[in-house]
Design goal:
The chain is mainly α and about 140 residues long. It is built from five helices and no strands. It folds into three domains: about 1-60, no CATH class; about 60-95, no CATH class; about 95-135, no CATH class. The protein has helices spanning about 1-20, 35-45, 60-75, 80-90, 105-115.
Length: about 140
């Protein structure tokens, strides 16, 4: 009985310490401390760059990192943080240089309905489809 109890306690301690060890990375280092160490290991070891699909897509943006953090903690994001992230994202929007916001809606619809893009086998020089109508 003592051996079983000791084994269970040691296994639990290893799991807790492993989780704490994963908390040392920041978003800028490309890690997500809110993902388990084993999941991070899978991402780093099992994904290989191929074509236009590079490993940089595994690195979260600041916004993704903050959203993941609060989701992991099971807490709502503070309104102040939400507003800050929103304003930073809005500042990064590049508006059309010619000032025309509406273009050929039929061509846009065709791209939106296309689910292709950002896959290793897709041509990076062609517009990426979004399969937007799957969600909207």
């Amino acid at each position: 009985m003592k051996r079983t109890t000791l084994f269970v306690l040691m296994t639990a301690a290893a799991g807790v310490l492993g989780g704490c060890a994963g908390m040392n990375q920041s978003a800028s280092e490309g890690g997500n401390p809110f993902a388990t160490a084993s999941f991070q290991s899978i991402l780093k070891n099992d994904f290989a760059p191929k074509g236009q699909a590079k490993l940089d897509r595994l690195v979260q943006t600041k916004q993704q990192y903050e959203c993941s953090k609060y989701e992991y903690l099971g807490k709502p994001m503070p309104a102040e943080m939400s507003k800050k992230l929103e304003s930073e994202a809005m500042a990064g929007i590049a508006y059309p240089k010619d000032g025309k916001f509406l273009g050929d809606w039929k061509a846009g619809l065709k791209i939106a309905q296309d689910g292709k893009g950002k896959q290793w086998s897709d041509n990076p020089d062609k517009p990426s489809g979004g399969n937007c109508l799957a969600c909207h």
